[in-house]
Structure formats: structure tokens, C-alpha cells
Design brief:
Chain B: Heterododecamer (2C3:3R2) of six catalytic PyrB chains organized as two trimers (C3), and six regulatory PyrI chains organized as three dimers (R2). The complex is a heterodimer of chains A (about 450) and B (about 325). Chain A has about 450 residues and is of the alpha/beta class. Chain A is built from eleven helices and 21 strands. In chain A, helix 1 packs across helix 2 and helix 7 runs parallel beside helix 9. Chain B has two domains: about 170 residues, 3-Layer(aba) Sandwich (Rossmann fold); about 160 residues, Aspartate/ornithine carbamoyltransferase (Rossmann fold), CATH 3.40.50.1370. In chain B, about 35% of the residues lie in helices and about 15% in strands. In chain B, helix 1 packs across helix 5 and helix 5 packs across helix 11. The two termini of chain B are about 20 Å apart. At the A-B interface, helix 5 of A face helix 3 and helix 4 of B.
Chain lengths: ~450, ~325
């Protein structure tokens, strides 16, 4: 196995440091010493140099100016396999994840068949291992077929080889209060968490976009903030009542942030995520009627964007999760109401977070590591990920160039889908390399 | 004018007045034995209707034919629309056939925008009603009807400055209300939307119109009252308790008609639900201009087609001068 000597990289944006990755761990870390006449093949300004040693190959990576973060962990990814291999496969989705700096993703359960049995979650888990781009942790469905009627065999999924700890009917809300209460209680037996897609179904029948002045003008059925907030409030109270862990998926409104802030102030065990797109994009984009901007929950107002940014900054919202949702071209190349909900996110997540949170001074890189690696790994009970960049820790790291800029090109992706809402936008930053247990999954911005 | 007519907001005041003046010229055709002009000879207009709407389709069809355009009626209702693919494929087909204008009626708000802005077709796109969004030619024919009865400000105006218009009923789901609110404001009218709170859109306070829950207080000041249809599917969705209660509070009956000023006209975009939002005696009264709206619809759609396809000057006056027109300076230009 190749060892990697990473020179002049900045852990969490700090002082230049040399890191040696060997045997799957960070074997050594030393402050960098300036070196004259550094040679080697220059790749995009960062050289990779190979040399043989008695133990095997060592590749040297000149990481001058690059930030080192622990490998990112996504708590909310749609890999579409099994069932919609035309949109994404475990292989292509995890390739996109690695290119985005992720070393672990949680694959949502709304596949076909639904990941509501040990058999399906083990299949997804095994496909992830075979692909080898990043670790795949399947999310189990809360209810059979996501139908919101009967609990799926949560224990069987927890005990399976996939070791499921996160359960979600994402895409649909567990709207039945009794079922939600039971699910929250039941998963305590194996330290699970219910990740709720908070969407009151009756308030959002045929809903198309954020309810506000614009939805009224555009004649698109409104999706009121209260439909999200009412469920979050109810579930926080339920989680407190039964003493369980609750995670709120894709928080999108200012009111939701306020409710979660209140729940946390009570000491309740509630965590929450926000997507990159809800940190950056607003409902004004629906005015184009271009379904590339159609997503669930919908893009909200600028006030909401500000609130979720503030919530992420002060820790009310624990993590960023992508809700990477690939869809084939024809499901977006149509009129708004007929189009599918969802947008890609894995390959742009870190750039969007830099743009919305770091470049604005709301977070530093240590905060980003907390919110995109440490905390999501903790919520998902993923032991090997989200570890600090420190000697002896698993070599799951990402090298990121915050000084780069790029104009996002929809076709430049490992995903099978192209529903990228940032296409044509300039975003900062570039993932230069990703390492999974010391093995490069991405080098020089390309799949290794 | 812009290439497409997707929203009443696409029309500047000059544009809107030009359409109304042109329609006035063209309307006189209806009174002549040969109702046809050669203006769009050789041009192809496609009526692409994904929803049933016989009255709108035949209105556009008559308008195009009176301008000598070739008309193709394409009814796509009932096909596999849930996937939405058919809009694109249909557009590509029409593009290949060389349509100059596509008149589209579609159940999805924004479908005409997609047709105009995706590169699927190079045709001019005219929105003939999209979902709960807009129906700009209906607004134009309504404004035209108001303008003929209530008069414009100044000799050259096509405007409705200071006229008070009440739009009554299911504003929330009404594309007619949206387009009318926009266009009537553009033309200088004062608009009041009257509806139960459940049938006013969220954010209506940003529409630059007044709103009221109380029809009786609005009627005495109105110069025109337009009743909006309440569709059957709203009746069981808790927007109001019962049809009877709706009629009592928001229906236009003969008692309420008595509150109107002498000159006030009563309008309805059709199709009416008699006995629900309007009683038969009101609909058939002398104040009612509902049938005239239909006639005016053809003239206004002729004007829109002509202005989008044929040029920016009014048609109709080239061979025939009409003594009644005094409103359109461009007419003189066109006649020389």
C-alpha cells in the first residue's frame, strides 16, 4: 500500500504541517519546515512525487495552501440503488461523494425496494464496500414501504451487517404521532436515532414551492413554513417525553431554527441538519419556473436563509447534510408541477459551505469540520469517521484548496444525473484529495 | 412588445394600450359581411390545449382565421401528462412543423414559460391560461370591455385611470384574477379583490391592490364588478362551509345589484355557475356585458396575434377607414 507524505497542509486551516499516512492511519504529524527548490511533477500547483522506500512506495503531496479536514460525513444522501440505477448507483454516488471530500455517506431508505429490511440494507452496504469510494451506511426505513402505517423491522436492520443506527422515512414524514412516538422509543434499544422529514402532509398536498407572496403570484401551490415547524415542535416534545434521540432532516425555515433552539435549551436530545442549498438559494429562483430549483423542502426566503445560517453558526443546527438527490434529465426537463423534487449536492457541498459560512466569517475551518464530519459521525454512531486530524487516528481526511474558484459545470460530475442548481455559478474552493483509511480515493481533484 | 405573451406583467402601459386600440380597429370587422383580413396569410398558429377550454380555443381559432392564418388545433388532453414529457416532445414536433405562434393552455402554472424559455421552440408563445397562474388575453379582453364602457382618460388613452374595479370570488385559484390585477393596475385602474380570507392568496398585500372580505361595502363604489367562477372541487376543501353560505356572502344577486351605480357593468369570464356566484337575473340583466366579453375576446386575440406576428402597428385600417375611431394615432400611420 502506498504511503502518503502530505507537506505544508494546514489542519483545520491552522499552521503548515507535514502528515504521513501509513497503514490506514495518520502515522506522523510535524510542523512543516520550509524547503528550498521543491521539485516534482506540478499538478494544478500541487505536486505529487513518488519515491520507493524499503517499506513500499511513498507519494509526496505538496499541499501548500491546502486545508486538511477530517473526511466529510454525509448523514443524508440518496444513492438511488436499488431501483433507480438510471439516476444514480452506489458506485457513481459514492464517486461523487469522494470528489466532494466525503469519506462516509448515509444512504437514504427511499429506494425501490425500500430499505426496510435487513436484506436491502445489507445489499446497499455491500455495494458500498465493493465500490470502495467511501463508506456507505444505509439508513433504514422507519415504516414498511415508507407508508407510515407499520414499523419496519428496525432491530433486524440494526443487527444486520450494515449496523443501521439512523432510521428515516425521508421523502415522507412519519406524520402519525403514535407511530413516531413508538419509533423514537423502540430505537433506544440499540442507540438508534429517528431522522424525521418534517412535512405535515395535509398542509402540503400538491405543494410546489415556499408559500409566500411569490407562490401567490406564480400560481404555484404554497408550502407553508408551518407544515415543517408544526411537525418539528411535535417531535421535539415527543422526543423529550420518551427520552429518545431525534434528528431533524433539512431544516429550512427561521421558525424551525427557533423551535430547535428552544428544544435544545431544555436539554432535549435533538439534533438538526441543514442542506447546502438552503444555506444559499432562495425561493426567488422559482420565478424562472425551471424545475432545477424544485426541491423538498422548498427553497425559502432570504430571511430563512439568514436564519439557518445563524442557526448553523451558533450550533442550533448541528450539521450540514447534502440531501444529494439525483434525478434523470427527463424528470427535470418539463413543467414545474410535473418535475421531481431534489438537487445534487455532494460535489458542491464544501464549496457552498465555504461561500455561505466561511467566507462570510460565520464559521472557521474547525467549525466546518465539526459540522460536516465530527457531528454527523456522532449522530450516525459511525466510529471510524469524524475523528480528529491527529496522530494515530484513521487516515480519513480531505485536502481542500479554499483559494481556488470555479464556475460550476453541470456535466462535470461523477453522478449519473445533472440536476445541479449551481450550474453556471462561480463557487470558491476545490477538493484536491480525499483519503479513506489512508488510501487515496481522489487525487488532484480526480478519482484516484 | 415582447416576443411572447406569458403574463400580463409582460405588457407595458404602451403595449397594453396598443393592443386595446388595435382591438378596437379589428372589432369593427365583426360588423362587416366579410370578416377577414390578409394580415397573417401564410403564418401558422397552433392552438395547443392540454386542458379542455372550448370557448378560449374557438376564440383564438376565430381570431387567427380572421387574420388569414393557418390554424392547427392540437388537443393533448388525456395523454400521459403526469410525466410532463409530452410538453417538450409536443413542442419539438410543432417546432419541426414550423409554427409561428403557439397558443398554449396548460394545467401546470408556468408551462408557457417553459415552452418559451427552454429552447424547445422558436415560436411566439401566447399563454391561453396556465394552471392557477395567468390568463393574459382574458385580462386584455376584460380591460377592453371595461374601456369601451367606462372610457379611457383622454382622447388618445387606452387607459382606465381611476376606474374602480372589483374582482369577486376565488382569487386564490384564479388565473383570470392574477392577470386582471396586473393589467388593470398597468392601465391605471384601482382594483379591489373581494373574497373570503380562505380564497385570497398568501402575500396578496404585495399585489398593489386593495382587498376586502365584505362585498356589500365594495359594490357602491365600483365601476365594474367581475365575478370569478368558484370551481366545484373547492366546495369540499373547507374554503367555505357551504355553497349557500358562499352565495349569501359573495354571490351577486338582484339585491346586491341594487347597490351598484347606474353606469356600473357586471362581468364574468365564464363559464358561470348560475346561482352560485351570480344569479340568472343579474347575468342576464342590462348591466351584464358577459356576452360582449366573448365578442371582444376575438378582437383582442386578433390584436395580440397581429402585434406579435405581423408587426407593431395596428392592422385593419389599410383599406378601410372607420369613422368611429379616434383613439389610435398609429392607425393613421398604418393606413398610409
Amino acid at each position: 500500500m502506498t504511503d502518503y507524505l502530505i507537506r505544508n497542509a494546514r489542519p483545520y486551516g491552522g499552521e503548515p504541517t507535514d502528515l504521513l499516512l501509513r497503514d490506514g492511519i495518520i502515522a506522523e504529524m510535524h510542523p512543516s519546515v520550509p524547503e528550498e527548490g521543491d521539485e516534482g511533477a506540478r499538478l494544478e500547483g500541487h505536486s505529487v512525487r513518488s519515491s520507493g522506500t524499503e517499506d513500499g512506495d511513498v507519494e509526496t503531496i505538496d499541499a501548500d495552501g491546502l486545508v486538511v479536514l477530517p473526511g466529510l460525513v454525509d448523514l443524508h444522501t440518496h444513492l438511488r440503488e436499488p431501483g433507480r440505477e438510471d439516476a444514480e448507483t452506489v458506485d457513481t454516488g459514492t464517486s461523487a461523494a469522494a470528489l466532494g471530500g466525503f469519506t462516509a455517506v448515509h444512504a437514504m431508505a427511499n429506494t425501490n425496494p425500500v430499505a426496510d429490511t435487513a436484506g436491502v440494507v445489507e445489499q446497499v452496504w455491500r455495494l458500498g464496500r465493493e465500490a470502495g469510494h467511501c463508506d456507505v451506511y444505509p439508513v433504514g426505513a422507519v415504516t414498511i414501504g415508507l407508508e407510515g402505517k407499520k414499523l419496519a423491522e428496525l432491530g433486524a436492520m440494526a443487527d444486520s451487517a450494515a449496523r443501521v443506527r439512523v432510521f428515516s422515512d425521508d421523502g415522507k414524514c412519519v406524520s402519525d404521532a403514535v407511530l413516531m412516538r413508538r419509533a423514537l422509543e423502540y430505537v433506544k434499544a440499540f442507540d438508534g436515532v429517528i431522522a424525521q422529514h418534517a412535512q405535515e402532509p395535509r398542509l402540503t398536498e400538491d405543494a410546489q414551492m415556499n408559500e409566500g407572496e411569490l407562490s401567490g403570484r406564480l400560481g404555484l401551490r404554497g408550502w407553508p413554513a408551518v407544515a415543517e415547524e408544526a411537525i418539528i415542535a411535535r417531535d421535539c416534545l415527543l422526543a423529550a417525553h420518551v427520552g429518545s434521540r431525534l434528528h431533524i432532516c433539512h431544516v429550512s425555515t427561521a421558525g424551525s431554527v427557533e423551535i430547535i433552539r428552544w428544544a435544545k435549551s431544555k436539554g432535549w436530545n435533538v439534533t438538526a441538519e441543514v442542506t447546502p442549498h438552503h444555506l444559499l438559494l432562495t425561493d426567488e429562483l422559482a420565478g424562472t419556473y425551471d424545475p432545477i430549483y424544485k426541491v423538498n423542502p422548498p427553497l425559502r426566503s432570504a430571511t430563512d436563509v439568514e436564519a439557518v445560517r445563524a442557526g448553523l453558526a451558533d450550533g442550533t443546527i448541528d450539521i450540514v447534510a447534502t440531501d444529494h438527490a439525483p434525478h434523470p434529465h427527463e424528470d427535470k426537463d418539463c413543467e414545474w408541477a410535473a418535475a421531481a423534487f431534489g438537487m445534487l449536492g455532494l460535489e458542491t457541498a464544501l464549496s457552498v459551505v465555504q461561500h455561505a459560512m466561511v467566507d462570510t466569517g460565520l464559521l472557521d475551518w474547525a467549525d466546518v469540520a465539526q459540522r460536516m464530519s465530527t457531528a454527523p459521525a456522532a449522530i450516525g454512531r459511525v466510529g471510524d469517521h469524524g475523528r480528529p486530524v491527529a496522530v494515530g487516528e484513521p487516515a480519513n481526511i480531505v485536502l481542500y484548496d479554499p483559494g481556488a474558484t470555479r464556475v460550476v459545470e453541470a456535466s462535470e460530475t461523477a453522478s449519473l444525473s445533472r440536476n445541479n442548481p449551481y450550474a453556471g455559478r462561480e463557487l470558491p474552493g476545490r477538493v484536491v484529495a480525499t483519503f479513506l483509511r489512508g488510501k487515496a480515493t481522489v487525487l488532484d481533484g480526480k478519482l484516484a | 412588445m415582447k416576443k411572447h405573451l406569458l403574463s400580463a406583467a409582460d405588457l407595458t402601459r404602451d403595449d397594453a394600450e396598443l393592443v386595446l386600440r388595435t382591438a378596437e380597429e379589428l372589432r369593427s370587422l365583426a360588423d362587416r359581411p366579410i370578416k377577414k383580413l390578409p394580415a397573417l396569410r401564410g403564418r401558422t398558429v397552433v392552438n395547443l390545449f392540454f386542458e379542455d377550454s372550448t370557448r378560449t380555443r374557438i376564440s383564438f381559432e376565430a381570431a387567427a382565421k380572421r387574420l388569414s392564418a393557418d390554424v392547427i388545433n392540437f388537443s393533448a388532453k388525456g395523454s400521459s401528462l403526469s410525466k410532463g414529457e409530452s410538453l417538450k416532445d409536443t413542442a419539438l414536433t410543432l417546432e419541426a412543423m414550423g409554427a409561428d405562434a403557439i397558443v398554449i393552455r396548460h394545467g401546470a402554472s408556468g408551462a408557457p414559460h417553459r415552452l418559451a424559455n427552454t429552447g424547445w421552440t422558436r415560436s411566439s408563445v401566447i399563454n391561453a391560461g396556465d394552471g392557477t397562474h395567468e390568463h393574459p388575453t382574458q385580462a386584455l379582453l376584460d380591460a377592453f370591455t371595461m374601456w369601451r364602457h367606462l372610457g379611457g382618460a383622454g382622447k388618445n388613452g387606452g387607459g382606465l385611470d381611476g376606474r374602480r374595479i372589483a374582482l369577486v370570488g376565488d382569487v386564490l385559484h384564479s388565473r383570470v384574477a392574477r392577470s386582471n390585477a396586473l393589467l388593470l393596475r398597468t392601465l391605471g385602474a384601482e382594483v379591489t379583490l373581494v373574497a373570503p380570507p380562505t380564497l385570497l392568496p398568501v402575500g396578496v398585500e404585495g399585489w398593489d391592490v386593495a382587498t376586502s372580505y365584505d362585498l356589500d361595502s365594495v359594490l357602491p363604489k365600483a365601476d365594474a364588478v367581475m365575478m370569478l367562477r368558484v370551481q366545484a372541487e373547492r366546495m369540499n376543501a373547507a374554503f367555505f362551509p357551504t355553497v349557500r353560505e358562499y352565495s349569501r356572502r359573495y354571490g351577486l344577486d338582484s339585491r346586491r345589484m341594487g347597490l351598484l351605480q347606474d353606469h356600473t357593468i357586471v362581468m364574468h369570464p365564464g363559464p358561470m355557475v348560475r346561482g352560485m356566484e351570480i344569479t340568472a337575473d343579474v347575468a342576464d340583466s342590462k348591466r351584464s356585458v358577459i356576452v360582449e366579453q366573448v365578442t371582444n375576446g376575438v378582437a383582442v386575440r386578433m390584436a395580440v396575434l397581429y402585434l406579435l406576428l405581423g408587426g407593431s402597428e395596428p392592422a385593419g385600417a389599410a383599406d378601410d377607414r372607420h369613422d368611429h375611431h379616434d383613439s389610435a394615432p398609429a392607425t393613421d400611420g398604418a393606413s398610409q
